[in-house]
Amino acid sequence: MATLDNANPTILSASQLPTRQQRIPLRTGPDLKYNDIIFEKPSYLSRPFCDGQVASWPRSDANDGSLAAAEPIDEQEIYDLISTISDPEHPVSLGQLSVINLPDIHITPAPHTPGVGPNTIITVLVEVTPTITHCSLATVIGLGVRVRLEQCLPPNYRIVVRCKENSHSQDDQVNKQLGDKERVAAALENDTLKGVLDKMLETCA
Amino acid sequence: MADFRQLALEFVLADDEAKQTSLAQQAASGNARQSPRVERSALTAEELQSAPANTNPVARWVEAVQPWMPGSNGDEATGDNETPDWTGRAKALEFLSRSLDFLGPEVLKPSQVKLLISFFGAMFDVDHKAGVLASATALSRITQMKSFQPTSADDIIQKICTLKDDFSRQLAKTRLSVFELLRSLITNPAVASDLQYKHGASSGFMNDLLALCRNERDPTCLMVWFDVLAFFLQEYEPSQEMIEEVFNTFKAYFPITLPRTSTSGITPEELKQQLRKCFTSTHKLAPLTFPFLLGKLDQGEGVTVNVKVDILKTVKACAEAYKNPEQTVNPYVDSIWSSLKYEVRNGEIEDTIWATLEVLKILAVRLKGDNLRDYALTVTRDCVNDLANAVYTAPAGRLLVSVLSATPSAFVLMASPAITHVKENLRHPKGPGHSGDLLKILHVMLETRLLLVSTDMGPQERSEFAAIDTVFTSLYDDVYKKPLEQAVKPEASYDDHKLAAQAVQGAGALVCQKAAKSTAVANVDASRLLPGDKCLVICDTLFSIIEQTRINEDQNRTTASDELASETTKALQRSVTSYNSAYVPHVRRGLDIIRSARKTESPQSVSTVQSLGLLLAYVGCSELPAVPSQGLDNFILITKAMYLELIASIEEKSSASVRCAFTACLQAAVRCFRDACSSIETAGSTALDSEWISSIAQRYPGLEDPHAQPAKATAAASPGQVRTDFLLISLYFVRQLYQRATKPSGTRLELSDEFATMEEGASSQLLHLLGGLAGFVVHELSEAEQLSLKASSFVMHLFREDAVTIPQAGTQVEPSEWSWIATSRLNVLTFGILEALRPAAVAQLYGAGVAQSILIQSVTSDASSADPTTAFVLRAILTILANKHKLETVEPVMEIINQQVEVILANEADNGTLTKATSIFAIAAGMLRRYSGKQASGLLRLLRESPKSSALGQSLSRRLEMVVAPQKPLTKDNFAIVKPLWMQKLYFELAKPMTPQALGQDSSVQDRVIRLNLSIGTLMLVKHMPFSIYEGDAESILRIAIFVAQTIGSGPDVVAALHVLRNILVEASAKGESHLASIIAICTAAFSSKPHVTPEWLPASYTSASADDVESQAESCEAALEIMGGLPRMFESRYLVPSAPKVERELTLACGNPVRNVRKLARAARAAWKELR
Questions:
Q1: What domain count does chain B have?
Q2: How many domains, in total, are found in chain A?
């Protein structure tokens, strides 16, 4: 690539990116240093020393269930999946360049909707915002997002990737390309393009 | 008379074949012999020593090598075309030098030494190909001889110098021997004085040496050469020209590095230090080193971090080592400062900044009087301007502190102007970060003062130090008051909290300041810098901040408010330790808040009680003040308050969680005070007064009386006494609380009405907290203390010695008589103490017959407790009793256990049998960690056979996990006895015999359900063992794991199977190769949503229990996905590709699993399988 489309984009720092909102962890001051020991659940009330009916213990119950709790795939999870994709031009992620933004991810039906089962068709719409309106790589970025989501989501998810309205001078063209299954499949056959995509997805955990 | 020629010839010829013969000889004779060459040399030396003088042995010995020497019938005579025999000649000379190694230092006469010196010395000139190494080694040896004349050293050096350019062509090893010869000569005091006498200040010999060694690059040689140069500069008195010459030689090496490929065994740091030694060798170098080093530093961009640090360390070493700093260091102080200040001011790399600060500090240490004043003034002048700039404040602060912390004098000169400027800038800060940096500088200065004030100072210095005290006394009002008061306001912002978090640290350090004049004053109050009322005001404000952050805690907690709370707590603790009088009003103030919270019973009351109680406990008890008894007073004050509040809350029927909070605070106070006492040396064998209750009640009256003033400890109590009293007072409170929790009922005890009427879960927790408190106190007692206090009796009467009579040792005890202490709900209290008892104290329980009665009752009783918690606690009690005493020697109990084993194994039984069996399992868990000999065979048999029971096998096989699983009462910290190889023994006794049966290889066990039980049992045992124990049977265990997972599908058994499977695959993946298809199938089944098809023969009870267990479902999914994700890494793709399409389909579906962590693992596994080709 001889010249860069956008040589000087705005880059966000990692702390500015949206993350799953967690409550501030409990304070661990010097006065509280023995709290964990004092309120620890006694060993006789944990498996295998107690059977079946595990007795409840006031303090430890709060964080016990969280690991096994059901949490549907939400916008933040989609964001976490695609915001780490590298930009084809710059060594930073799409999230840091604000190409991918949390408010531009839409899931229908919304997560937590009652009655949604593993066989319900769910549509994920991601609107990509190129850093400049004439970005020639918008289609590549869109394709990267699409490939990443296809690799990560279960089969009942339908993925739609579009350019955000008015963010690109030729957004209808780009959208058409990204929506065309045949063209997407053909693009993935192209070795050069495949190489670019692999490089972009290398940084995804 | 020996033939030296013959010996020399043998030496020269003894080479390759010599090694073989020597090996053969060594093998034949069976004892280690020296190699023939060494033997020849030794023989020669012996001959030289023993031969009669008139036969002139030395001359004959030297002549022995004549045949190999040039000019004999050797190389030159054989014609010009032939190459001389260098190797032979080198070996011949080596023969001479090696012989010298074995020669005593007194053998050679002066004339002989002289002859040898000229002989070997000539070699440097005439034979630089074969003779240098041997000559240098020989001369090194000769210079150690008694008859060596120091005057010959000069000759040797001159001879060496004749090597000239040939020197650099020698091998490194040869050069090293020459350098070592030079070092031994030049560092020899006699030689040194001779050389100085001969050459004077011009040191001409050194000129030649410098020319000779100019191009040395080998690190090992350089180590010696630098040593020589450093010694020369240090001990000789060379002229300034010579000094310059030498300096020019070693400066060329600076900065020195070592090629990464160097195999010399010398580290770059050693080499750097050796070179640094040259720089620091004499103060006469000062005019050369400082300009040179600063010049190197100012080269700019080209200087790497490592080089910069090296330069700075060298500057520091020079400034530290040079004598007469007024003349040597002072002239360069200004240039050093102006070069170095930017390293800190604009520096980014912490290593360089630290090295720079060290240099600047050492300058202040070395300078005195006016010079120091000038330096301090320069530093202050340059830095204070930067304090007004938010960007440079922090570096300016570091510069200031590094210099003023050097000595009390520097502090006196700089502290006052620095503080004035900090204050000035705090009035007009450029932003919250700027204020924070300024406050940090002040805080560090206060900490510095605290350190300096206790250093040794002369009277003059101390009075100067005291003169600036006024600068500090006004600091609170001038600086800290505003940010602290701002933080107390409810509307304080994030930035206010951040700033206050910095300010409280300074305020805390301010309270701890000692007055400069009075470090020796006995009165603690008079030795403080601030007056008492000011300290109290500061402590009060700190307390208000904590109160305010606690109110905020529920609504708008931020990281800044959390940081503020923690920092304020630390500052308050420090302040109270220093100014102890502040503690009483704080406890009073805290208690008022706690009481009103307790009475209102609002949702926040529990957190109020807990946070303030813990705070007061930490502040007053976590460190002993200067007078240790004051610490004990604090401890009594807070524990009594918490105890009385707990009693009041029980009487007022406050909620269970409030009572728990008070108990927790009480325990926290005890734990904190234990930390404070941890530095006290204890004589472990001291016995305590067995009449401790009356003694404590007498010495500390009114401990449980709400109206009595808190008792005070004797002011002069020693630290040891403080510790003992602390433990006994704690025990006293435990006793009161235990009495409160129980009531007598006939000859036994039961839970008091107040506890019995509480909701079950809450009362369990409260009892556990009480038990934990008792356990902690008992745990702190040494064995002698436990025995002298009869701690074992606490278990029996739970501190109600009036109601329960303890049986005398040797009397017969009815089993049912004592079982209440383990089988009723108050067994949690028993357990707390028992867990902390040492084995010797547990032995007393056996002595009284109580332990036996508990054990017998629980293994014979069918009745299971109505309350499940009570049953679980009983198991833990049994485990402890079986572990801390040699149960196998208590025959009556063992007999009954063995009988019960027979009954259980014979009986197709009911719930009662299950209870009994579980009790025996608990006993086994304790006993088998300590003993697995003959007496335990009955127990082991039960454990082995129990899975075969058709009725109970399913439950019992799962309970086998109890025997191996780690549990807290069985840790060494709780005085349990754990043998090193117990787990290995258990594996061979239990799991190994079960393995073939589980796999159906034993014809006696063919029932599939029983095989399944045995399989589950094996997995439960193996689950907690390291792989190395079952490595030999890994394949069989792998098959067992597959069998269980295939049969059951999901639930805790499958989780255990998958864990074991994962362990085996991680440690020895090859074992899984032949089972790969099955492994993939069971893992896929574990995370797939498809229902599991149970075999018809499997009773429904196996799967029904686990169907709703969400936790184990998620756990098995995770374990299965981890295995799946790892398979592509462990196995070649050809094994996996056939199943890839199906696996990928399932993994794709698993990416939609409701549990987030499972989805994450599924995606990772999917990516790993996608890469298979």
A1: 3
A2: 2
Q: How far apart, in Å, are the Cα atoms of B303 and each of B217, B279, B294, B347, B819?
A: 22, 20, 12, 13, 80
Which of B534, B557, B578 is at the close of a domain? Answer: B578
Whose CA is closest to B253, among B269, B272, B266?
B272
Distance to chain A for B962, nearest Cα, Å: 6
Q: What integer pLDDT is reported at residue B933 of this predicted model? A: 82
- Together in a domain, B1023 and B1151: yes
Domain range for residue A43? Answer: 34-67
H-only helix segments in B368-480: 369-386, 393-404, 408-427, 432-453, 459-467, 469-473, 475
Q: Which chain A residues are closer than 8 Å to B615 by Cβ?
A: 31
- Give the bridge partners for B743, in sequence order: B750
Note whether A68 contacts B1105, CB cutoff 8 Å.
Answer: no
Q: In angstroms, rounded to a whole number, what is the distance separating the alpha carbons of residues B830 and B845?
A: 12
Mean pLDDT over residues B640-669, rounded? 91
- Best probe of the B interface among A41, A49, A80, by most B CBs < 10 A, is A49
DSSP strand pairing (A122-128 vs A105-108): antiparallel
In terms of domains, do B738 and B696 share one?
Answer: yes
Distance CA B100, CA B94 (A): 10
Q: What is the pLDDT averaged over residues B951-969? A: 89
List the beta bridge partners of residue A160.
A125
Which of A47, A70, A153 lies closest to B1155 in CB terms? A70
DSSP letter, residue A89:
S
End-to-end CA distance of chain A: 27
**pLDDT range class, residue B277, cuts 50, 70, 90:** very high
d(CA B668, CA B639): 10
Q: What is the CATH number of the domain that holds A153?
A: 3.30.300.130
Intra-chain end-to-end CA distance of chain B, in Å: 83
Q: Which residues of A are less than 8 Å from B566 in CB distance?
A: 27-31
Question: Which DSSP string do the residues of B216-237 spell out, in sequence order?
Answer: ---HHHHHHHHHHHHHHHHHS-
Considering just the CA atoms, what is the radius of gyration of chain B in Å? 42
Contact B905, B942 (CB under 8 A): yes
Q: Do A162 and A193 fall into the same domain?
A: yes
Q: Are residues A142 and A99 part of one domain?
A: yes
One-character DSSP codes across B580-594: GGGHHHHHHHHHHHH
Q: How many Å apart are CA B939 and CA B905, to the nearest integer?
A: 11
Residue B853 lies in a domain: no
Alpha carbon distance B290, B1142 (integer Å): 75
Q: Are B766 and B774 in contact (CB under 8 A)?
A: no
* DSSP structure string for B660-698: HHHHHHHHHHHHHHHHHHTTS---TT----TTHHHHHHH
Model pLDDT, residue B76: 45
The predicted pLDDT at position A116 comes to 81
Chain A residue numbers touching B668 (CB-CB < 8 A): 34-35, 38
Tell me what the pLDDT averaged over chain B comes to: 86
Q: How confident is the model at residue A118 (pLDDT cuts 50, 70, 90)?
A: confident
Question: Chain B partners of A37 at a C-beta cutoff of 8 Å?
Answer: 671
ipTM reported for the complex, 2 dp: 0.92
Query: Are the CB atoms for B914 and B871 separated by under 8 Å?
Result: no
A88 and A116, same structural domain?
yes
Query: Quick one: B758 and B622 in the same domain?
Result: yes
- Residue A157's φ and ψ, nearest 5 degrees, are -100, 130
User: Does some domain include residue B1022?
Assistant: yes
Structure tokens at B1159: 């989805």
Tens of pLDDT, residue by residue over A9-53, are 788 877 778 777 565 677 788 888 888 888 888 888 887 787 766
CB atoms within 10 A of CB B1079: 24
Which domain, by its residues, includes B763? 590-789
